[in-house]
Design a protein that fits this description.
Length: 135
């Protein structure tokens, strides 16, 4: 049974965990599927510092699975424009929302059939990671 919400460009879930806990749970679930975090953007902090705007807790995680990235780069060097895999976590009404950019949708932009197996494998790993969090 699919426990994830889906859009044409993403999939995700809503979890009861507080934001800080959810961020750590997401990082751990990604690690279990072979993803490391290459970048972490604290959107709340950036908007406060740059625009003096109060915003909800929100982080953008740039996740990378090195073997999959290597295969993608071997197929098309321009794939770097679409990497790493983006995962967002944000606070919403006392819960946390986790959304992942769908690798198949992202790599479709390049119109390179040889990237489809890499995108499909990345998607499967990311789905498994997020499903671990789903209620």
């Amino acid at each position: 049974m699919d426990t994830l919400t889906r859009t044409p460009h993403s999939f995700g879930t809503r979890i009861a965990a507080p934001y800080a806990t959810a961020v750590e749970q997401v990082k751990e679930a990604l690690r279990e599927e072979g993803f490391g975090i290459l970048s972490e953007i604290d959107v709340q902090q950036v908007l406060k510092e740059k625009r003096n705007v109060d915003f909800r807790p929100y982080v953008i995680l740039g996740a990378c699975n090195p073997p999959l990235a290597e295969r993608a780069f071997s197929a098309d060097l321009d794939v770097g424009l679409l990497l790493p895999c983006n995962v967002v976590v944000y606070q919403d009404d006392g819960a946390s929302v986790v959304e992942v950019a769908d690798p198949e949708a992202m790599l479709e932009v390049l119109k390179r059939p040889e990237l489809l197996p890499v995108a499909s494998e990345a998607k499967a790993k990311l789905e498994r990671a997020i499903e671990r969090l789903a209620p």
